[in-house]
Design goal:
The chain is built from ten helices and seven strands. It is of the alpha/beta class.
Length: 289
């Protein structure tokens, strides 16, 4: 194709965005002295690939209904810092507003909310386990309206310990919600420890297959090239009678050495020295807010 960008150029741009997103997350959570840095750092590649390469969306024409566009839901709402960063960096609101994260009166609440009217947010997602249900309803609405676009949703692996997730899984398969692409951030950690210690999930691939979903295993969820490839593959598998589930293995806290390999940074902010250390590992590529 004449205007197709070289793969290397696309990859370099996306890598730069990932680095800036991670810097934003650290600075936002540090400034607020509350929040969840680990999950957003681990999902930087997913957020970047989705908003800068995959989604059919128009940041300047955001509507709650999302008619004529792809729609994304963040079910694990505690990853809000990463989502706010990618929304701002892709043009939904001014990047400078990231400085208001978790402040009184801010539109950037600790968990995403709709009352403040922040562009990009369609549901409140503080309570875990509900995002998949909302995504299914939206996907079915698109089918009724002959809207060919996709609905995406991100869940946490610990979140799938919630019973509502499995009710939704059955519902989506029964009603052939094949315009839905769900992803589980499969980092193996939750706030209280390792997922397998808290409540083992067993063979997630076999479970989602058994529930009637098309399952794709992404073992390199922190490799931007692999994430883009997998999301494109998921779209190719859409429209064939089954909802699609991506099991995306990531490292919580990825990109900051002392935050990796532990669940400690699920929900605590870095202090001044830790912020300095973390930022020294991440290149400022788009300009800090």
């Amino acid at each position: 194709m004449q205007n197709q960008q070289p793969v290397v150029a696309i990859t370099t741009n996306l890598i730069n965005i990932c680095s800036q997103l991670r810097r934003d997350v650290l600075r936002m959570v540090h400034a607020a002295q509350s929040g969840h840095p680990g999950g957003p750092l681990g999902c930087a590649e997913y957020f970047t690939a989705l908003y800068f390469e995959i989604l059919n969306h128009n940041p300047e024409n955001f509507t709650i209904e999302g008619s004529g566009q792809d729609v994304f839901f963040l079910s694990c709402g505690h990853l809000s810092a990463g989502w706010y960063s990618v929304l701002a960096r892709s043009g939904y609101f001014e990047v400078g507003e990231l400085a208001t994260f978790r402040k009184i009166g801010s539109r950037l609440q600790g968990h995403p909310a709709t009352a403040e009217g922040l562009p990009g947010i369609r549901i409140a997602s503080g309570s875990l386990g509900q995002g998949l249900s909302a995504a299914i309803g939206t996907a079915l609405g698109k089918k009724l309206n002959n809207d060919p676009n996709f609905v995406y949703v991100l869940l946490g692996d610990g979140e799938t310990q919630e019973g509502q997730v499995w009710e939704a899984a059955m519902f989506a398969a029964k009603y052939k919600t094949d315009n839905l692409i769900a992803t589980i951030d499969y980092n193996g950690r939750q706030i209280d420890g390792n997922v397998n210690d808290i409540m083992p999930l067993g063979d997630l691939s076999a479970k989602w297959n058994a529930f009637g979903w098309e399952v794709i295993e992404l073992n390199k969820g922190n490799d931007i090239v692999e994430v883009v490839k997998t999301l494109k593959l998921a779209k190719e598998k859409g429209g064939k009678g089954k909802p699609v589930m991506i099991l995306m293995k990531t490292e919580m806290g990825n990109g900051v050495d002392f935050m990796m390999g532990t669940n400690k940074w699920h929900g605590i902010p870095p202090n001044d020295d830790e912020l300095k250390s973390g930022l020294s590992q991440l290149e400022e590529t788009l300009g800090d807010y």
